[in-house]
Amino acid sequence: MNDFFIYLRLGFDHITDPSGYDHILFVVALCAVYTLRQWRQVLILVTAFTIGHSITLALATLRLINYRTDVIELLIPITILITAVANFFVQEPKSRLFDRPVTSQSRARYGLALLFGLIHGMGFSNYLRSLLGREADIVQPLLAFNIGLELGQLLIVSAVLLIAYVALEILNLRRRDWVLIVSGIVAGMALSLIINNELISG
Question: Which keywords, in A-to-Z order, does the entry hold (predicted)?
């Protein structure tokens, strides 16, 4: 049981680690267009991302799929950039009472979250496999690590929605401005990661 909590903590620390902020940026980009009152839609979105990264995290950790690490390390910031740029085109709800994005946009975002989750899961597996080494029983560490990832992810989502609440409801920032500011910052950081990745690999 001690090992379970060790890997749970490692999963939590991995996704919330400021020095490895690529996954944090992706979650921020996913949630940037939502408000606290839209928590149900955010829950669906995060669940789609979770399903995606859980699948490839398990398959890659169990060595049922193979991939090039350098390709995944490049694809992850690309998913962040695409998600952030897509935020620029999200239509703002006409009514604050029924604060819901357009259905077609919602479906597209859920699909992207699932697809990009597959890519991020392979990124998570790189770290987990380095921790496991030659350990024989990897099912329990895999489960614990994944739960840790989810707890960290929920913490990030909660922080983003609470900051959005303060910005929109207390500071009276226009919602469109909030989305553009947050998404613009994330897009710039993602672009920097892509350029740095290319310079290192080149």
Answer: Membrane, Transmembrane, Transmembrane helix
For residue 34, what are the CA distances in angstroms to 107, 139, 172?
A: 14, 35, 16
What distances in angstroms separate CA 151 from CA 10, 37, 179, one per listed residue? 11, 21, 25
Domain extent for 42: 2-16+23-201
Nearest-angstrom CA–CA distance, 69 and 49: 20
CA–chain centroid gap for 30, Å, is: 7
pLDDT at 90: 87
| pLDDT value at residue 62 | 86
Q: Is the pTM of this model over 0.70?
A: yes
- CA–centroid distance for 161 within its chain: 14
Taking Cα atoms as reference points, which of 54, 30, 46, 21 lies closest to residue 121? 54
Number of domains making up the chain: 1
Tell me: pLDDT of 126 over 90.
no
Asked which of 130-134, 138-142, 147-151, 161-165 is least confident by mean pLDDT, the reply is: 130-134
What dihedral do alpha carbons 7, 12, 14, 16 form, nearest 10°?
-170
Please tell me what DSSP assigns to residue 136: S
- What is the amino acid identity at position 31? C
pLDDT at position 102, please?
45
- Cβ-count burial of 40 within 10 angstroms (0-12 exposed, 13-18 middle, 19+ buried)? exposed
